[in-house]
Automatic annotation (TrEMBL):
Alphabetized SUPFAM superfamilies for the sequence: UDP-Glycosyltransferase/glycogen phosphorylase
InterPro entries (alphabetical): Glyco_trans_1
TM stretches of this protein: none
Source organism phylogeny: Bacteria, Pseudomonadati, Pseudomonadota, Gammaproteobacteria, Vibrionales
Keyword terms of this UniProt record: Transferase
GO-annotated biological processes: carbohydrate derivative metabolic process
Keyword ATP-binding: no
Pfam family, one: Glycos_transf_1
Domain Glycosyl transferase family: 164-321
Gene Ontology MF terms in the entry: glycosyltransferase activity
Protein name (Swiss-Prot/TrEMBL): Glycosyl transferase
Length: 350
């Protein structure tokens, strides 16, 4: 089976890491792979380490040659710009394509977007919420739910020890997300204000950067909070998962929430908002705690509950490990194989 994966993002965030993980798994399973990627992305450097055919395309209008997909069975699209590359390639050289959608925003009602999605052979959403959004715009398209799988990170114990010393004798809560409005950091800070009065030993470390940072820092200063730290974007997440006591993810909207899966994989208890795809991961009181989005009091109460109830922490950790089975890369890769094979079989009989 020969698959052409397309990801034209210029950065290297969660979507690119998940694409890379699927590619790595498929190589282990004996796939032949072609990868079309943006030369500006660190994703390219990772692909160069693998046994893939690599095509560099700085724009979706670039690199349209018959030879690129001549013996490919399916083009697999992984982000928004890539869908237009697949549309052009498919129209010119008659190769079917599928789209994995990772965000839970409503699909744009624009002619080019509609054309690209309606010409796909299948559409995949990472969560029930994303699948619902796809069906709202394209109710007649073949649609599947296939979640992403957690990425694992290495751990350097010396780094973990440094974090422990910095936050010694404190219950360390981390929120690992870009500082963007929909990630819910304002709710976190409102919860921190409540927690400062409830328990002085709980500290929240914000791991990320973004457009909301200045506003959030001002809010912390105005509230005179001493239990919140802004630590910027981190490139050693494994160390933070190993050092922390709890991960929170109180987003207002979320495609799935892969960082929650990563924390579960590191045996951290988790708290998330009842929004987007997060409930696909967290079964409340079983694999984590769910709170309503924008409810600072509920978030503060949940953090306090986890911090002060060790049996609950252990229960959530065990529940998280059990929940991870349905997100294992071997399983999700098998779901994609079924989709690919259905398309291949369908072309043979048409």
């Amino acid at each position: 089976m020969h698959i052409c994966h397309v990801n034209l993002a210029s950065g290297f965030s969660g979507g690119e890491r998940q694409t890379l993980q699927l590619i790595t798994r498929q190589l282990k399973e004996g796939y032949k792979l072609t990868v079309v990627a943006n030369p500006k992305s660190p994703f390219v450097d990772e692909i160069k380490k693998l046994n893939c055919k690599l095509i560099l395309a700085s724009h979706f209008s670039k690199q349209h040659k018959k030879t690129i997909t001549a013996d490919c069975d399916v083009i697999h699209v992984h982000e928004g710009r890539a869908i237009y590359w697949a549309l052009i390639q498919s129209k010119r050289f008659n190769v079917p394509y599928i789209v994995t959608r990772r965000i839970d925003n409503p699909l744009k009602n624009k002619w080019l977007s509609n054309l690209a999605y309606s010409n796909a052979t299948a559409l995949i959403g990472l969560s029930n919420e994303i699948v619902d959004k796809i069906k709202e715009r394209h109710p007649n398209q073949v649609t599947y739910k296939i979640p992403s799988s957690p990425v694992s990170y290495s751990v350097e114990q010396d780094n973990v020890d440094t974090i422990w010393r910095r936050f010694s004798n404190q219950f360390l809560v981390i929120q690992a997300a870009n500082l963007l409005h929909h990630k819910g950091h304002e709710t976190t800070i409102e919860a921190a204000k409540l927690l400062q009065e409830m328990d002085s030993n709980i500290h929240i470390a914000l791991l990320g950067d973004g457009s909301e940072r200045e506003k959030l820092e001002s809010l912390v200063k105005d509230y005179d909070l001493h239990n919140v730290s802004f630590l910027g974007k981190q490139n050693r997440m494994g160390d933070w998962f190993a050092a922390a006591d709890l991960l929170i993810h109180p987003s207002y909207s979320e495609g799935l929430g892969s960082v929650i899966l990563e924390a579960m994989g590191a045996k951290l208890p988790v708290i998330g908002s009842n929004a987007g795809g997060i409930p696909d991961i967290i079964d409340d009181q079983e694999s984590g705690l769910l709170v309503e989005a924008k409810d600072a009091q509920a978030l503060a109460d949940a953090i306090y509950q986890v911090a002060t109830d060790k049996p609950l922490r252990n229960k959530l950790i065990i529940g998280g490990q059990e929940k991870l089975a349905m997100f294992d890369i071997k399983y999700t890769s098998s779901l994609y194989r079924d989709v690919y094979q259905t398309i291949i079989d369908g072309r043979k009989t048409s």
